[in-house]
Amino acid sequence: MLNLPTITEKQREIIKLIYSHRYLNRIQIQAFLKHKDYKTINLWLKDLRQKHYLEWIYSTDFAERTKPAIYYLGLNGIRHLKTFDFYEVTELRKRYRDSSRSQTYIDRCLLLADCAVALQKYGDESEAARHKADCYSRYHYETEADYLEASYYHFLADNELIHPHLCFSKLVFEGGGEPTTAESYLLEIFDPTLPRYRVKKRLENYVAYLEYDDWSPETERDNLPIILLVCPRTSSLIYAKRKTRGLLLDIWEYDDAERPHIRFTTAEKLDRFGITSQDIWEEA
User: Which domains does the chain have, with CATH numbers?
Assistant: First the structure.
């Protein structure tokens, strides 16, 4: 048993957050923790770096100094998580390579983290305003790392067709009763370097997943999830949307009430307006 340096409970929360999201900056960590004092967050992060629980990506170049540092798991952070039984060993081993990931991969993780922050913020604002109405909404979300463990979306871990980057459900609370799930969403971000033939294969896999309907037996829900696909450019969105429309028409008529929903946006729109904006999504 390793004798790891002592850390606080809040610092343990930070390590778990970074495990789930892979890379986070200070602003995102502060938002997840709902902490008002950024100076305290910086002190916790500095201590975690000094104790090698975390490493960071930070440039001292004048043009880059205004960008927040990006944090990922260090050696002791991985060792700390190994002391818990519910983290998959194969998944933890991937963290040893996080110091050499591509910028494209890191940017995707940060964008997904922004999506999760927005979902959390939406729920907090809705709950705060519930005195004006008899209901409010929250989102339950899981990252890819989360559903590889024992979680609500665990069945996606072994799925041969799809591996979404973010899964979330909208929970509606009415009259103080139990929540009802209005809709579920599966989101994937296509990397800019993804070849078109692989984009085509991903689209075919999502349509096949919806056609075979592995969702209902696992979730005991009749309504299929809404698929959200994020393209790097407008040109790739146009291609993906047109291709998906054709794939759907091979199975469902356009006015079929059971026709599933696959929606598209670009990474720039997602980053600019946020995941909860209805205006950025285009139906296939």
Answer: 9-101 (1.10.10.10), 105-283 (no CATH)
